[in-house]
Specification:
Strand order of the largest sheet: 3-2-1-4-5-6
Largest sheet: 6 strands, mixed
Structural class: alpha/beta
Oligomer: single chain
Number of domains: 1
Helix content: 40-55%
Shape: globular
Radius of gyration: 15 Å
Number of helices: 5
Number of strands: 6
CATH class: Alpha Beta
CATH architecture: 3-Layer(aba) Sandwich
Length: 149
Amino acid sequence: MVDIYVDADACPVKDETIRVAARHGLQTYLVSDGGIRPRHDPMVELVIVAQGADAADDWIASHVQKADICITNDIPLAARCLERGALAIKPNGDPFTENGIGMALANRELMQSLRDQGEITGGPRPFNKSDRSEFLNRLETTIQAAKRL
């Protein structure tokens, strides 16, 4: 059985994830440190963790199993999920892969260093409709791949 874990605090595709998961009959965990409304769907569980920088990440990483799916922008969390045999995708639909996660972690460190030095002051580009559409397509194909594992 495939479960879906959502790093939910700043996730812009929670509703889309729940709709797709419902179509496939998959349990979905929305993991947050608060501020998210509970759902009345028995297939959607809201998990509230203690406040803290990595509390939601730690909960997801300790519960995710092989062939589960994690939705996150957090590269270290994605790496932890991949190590456990899970699949991970970003809310814009970009997948995290075994081949690319090392480079993603290195790039994250480089960008953090540049931000700390004041070299880079902007963040990622705004989330848009095409990101949402790409996410829906990728989630569907990721679920199909997870079911084959």
